[in-house]
Design brief:
Layout: H1 2-44, H2 51-76, H3 84-101, H4 106-130, H5 136-155, E1 160-161, H6 165-172, E2 174-175, E3 178-179, H7 180-198, H8 200-210, H9 212-217, H10 222-248, E4 250-251, H11 259-269, H12 281-300, H13 305-334
Antiparallel strand pairs: 1-4, 2-3
Helix pairs in contact: 1-12, 2-7, 2-10, 2-11, 2-12, 3-4, 3-5, 3-10, 4-5, 4-10, 6-10, 7-8, 8-10, 11-12, 11-13
Length: 335
């Protein structure tokens, strides 16, 4: 009997160790993947680990990082926002037109850009909650097309160059060797971390994504949470538009095309779940860096843009598969 109990005890310990390893792999898999990807690319290209290239990755990742921060909040509520690229283009177009053509003070133009993005995001949330649209995929896809078309109309399909110094400072300047845009990204992520972990609204966002009916029954105003989440997403898209305009010193009607896919991929790769209620801002940062490192590495290796699209597509599919596996594991462990 003693030997049997010892064997059972050893089996329990072994199973417990395996469960801990599974949890560690699920929670830290993205960070491990980022490290392995960097090691792999550093072997293939001697230019990858140079300071200039690392800072270039940081600057390139800043725009996707800002959009992804807003997307994280949406996905935490089990939603999605396909309009982020169009919001970026439309709000930054208004900023460019107002400052270049109308002579508006640059500060007011920046505020106009941020307010426009927030308003469009709020409208997305309003359509979702008040019209009882079955899924935000539908309403935000409509917004994506509407505001892309409006951007082409108001800009007459023509870029506008000559951004003010304040915009170019945010998007193109460095403090020491670090891009200002990446510093802005880190500040935003610290704020989002505090918002999600230390405030009532953060807890409500997780609650709505975890179980919307339970959240409603517990007294959470689900409508207000969704309005706020989509407004944040619009605000972050507009902020990314300012950074992009400063980086290229212009606004153009096709800005932000495809950014929604990169943002969704970054959030899911970073550990968030399409099913809602799971995810963190620092995991999203890891996902953003994976996307940035992957694109940068493919460029260094002179991979054609067509093959890059294939690679990014495969990464997105892999991220979704991992999310499904993660969700099944959680369901199994909770039984």
């Amino acid at each position: 009997m003693g030997k049997v109990s010892e064997i059972k005890s050893a089996e329990k310990k072994s199973n417990g160790t395996l469960d801990r390893l599974k949890k560690l792999l699920i929670n830290s898999g993205a960070l491990v993947a980022l490290v392995l990807l960097c090691l792999f690319l550093s072997i293939l290209s001697p230019d990858f680990l140079t300071v200039n290239n690392i800072m270039n990755i940081a600057r390139q990742s800043s725009i996707n990082g800002l959009v992804s921060a807003g997307m994280l909040l949406v996905i935490l509520t089990a939603g999605t926002d396909l309009s982020v690229g169009s919001i970026l283009a439309f709000s930054s177009a208004l900023m460019g037109i107002s400052v270049v053509h109308w002579g508006v003070n640059p500060l007011f133009s920046i505020l106009l850009c941020l307010a426009t993005g927030s308003l469009i995001g709020w409208i997305n949330g309003l359509i979702l909650t008040e019209l009882h649209v079955p899924h935000p995929f539908i309403s935000t896809m409509g917004s994506m097309n509407v505001f892309r078309g409006l951007t082409l109309i108001i800009m007459n399909a023509t870029p506008i160059s000559g951004m003010p110094k304040s915009v170019k400072f945010i998007g193109a300047e460095f403090i020491g060797i670090v891009p200002v845009s990446f510093m802005l990204l880190l500040i935003v992520y610290v704020i989002f971390h505090f918002l999600l972990k230390n405030t009532t609204i953060g807890r409500h966002i997780y609650a709505v994504g975890g179980n919307i009916e339970a959240a409603r029954l517990s007294g959470i105003d689900v409508k207000k949470v969704l309005w706020l989440v989509y407004s944040f997403s619009g605000f972050m898209s507009a902020l990314a538009g300012i950074v992009l305009a400063g980086r290229v010193d212009s606004v153009y009607p096709l800005a932000g095309t495809g950014y929604e896919l990169d943002a969704i991929a970054s959030v899911i790769i970073g550990g968030a779940s399409f099913f809602g209620g799971i995810g963190s801002i620092w995991g999203t940062l890891v996902g953003v860096l994976i996307m940035g490192v992957l694109r940068n590495g493919l460029n260094l290796l002179n991979v054609s843009s067509n093959l890059q699209s294939v690679a990014i597509g495969l990464v997105i599919v892999a991220a979704v598969c991992v999310d499904v596996f993660r969700q099944r594991t959680l369901v199994k462990n909770n039984k």
